[in-house]
Amino acid sequence: AQSVTQLGSHVSVSEGALVLLRCNYSSSVPPYLFWYVQYPNQGLQLLLKYTSAATLVKGINGFEAEFKKSETSFHLTKPSAHMSDAAEYFCAVRETGTASKLTFGTGTRLQVTL
Amino acid sequence: SQTIHQWPATLVQPVGSPLSLECTVEGTSNPNLYWYRQAAGRGLQLLFYSVGIGQISSEVPQNLSASRPQDRQFILSSKKLLLSDSGFYLCAWNRGSSTDTQYFGPGTRLTVL
What we know:
The complex is a heterodimer of chains A (114) and B (113).
Chain A: E1 3-5, E2 10-14, E3 19-21, E4 24-26, E5 33-38, E6 44-50, E7 56-58, E8 64-68, E9 73-78, E10 87-94, E11 102-104, E12 108-113
Parallel strand pairs in A: 2-12
Antiparallel strand pairs in A: 1-4, 3-9, 5-6, 5-10, 7-8, 8-9, 10-11, 10-12
Chain B: E1 3-7, E2 10-13, E3 19-26, E4 32-38, E5 44-52, E6 55-58, E7 64-70, E8 73-78, E9 87-94, E10 103-104, E11 108-112
Parallel strand pairs in B: 2-11
Antiparallel strand pairs in B: 1-3, 3-8, 4-5, 4-9, 5-6, 7-8, 9-10, 9-11
């Protein structure tokens, strides 16, 4: 079965600093990987997804992620954090099979300080 | 464009009472539908999914059940709520292709007292 591990349940950065949120995956087949963002008391919104095309994926709000097969990683980055980036971020991997299920990591809460 | 609705937005229920949460999708047909629960401080747990009307798959055995009476309607139910059923319930849909995104509804905050 596919799985993802998000290292660091809480990450704090200063406004303007680099954001790096880590995600490692385990998959028996070429994975499809997703990053979602969740603001308090809201649903999840897709930031970006990797579907075996370009290994560097650009998403919304200035975020990007790089698929590294050798490291089984799909880390999320943003060059300069903004206060509005404070939220919870989830990495997910698509399960094999016809139901297109996703397996989510446990999430990383990003705090942005002045 | 497609939209997904969930109601109610918040719900406070006593232990032992029944539950019915509704999710509807507009602007698409024959979507895959999913129910997730997000407990406080935890990730998302897939509860049920459906690939068609009347087709329900359960991921976690529990006192909850799901039904899909219409193509774009997904209902989460319980006959008797437990304290442990408290959480944030999210409905999601996708078109079913391998690369397709799951789109999430706004969620229902359930508190069981």
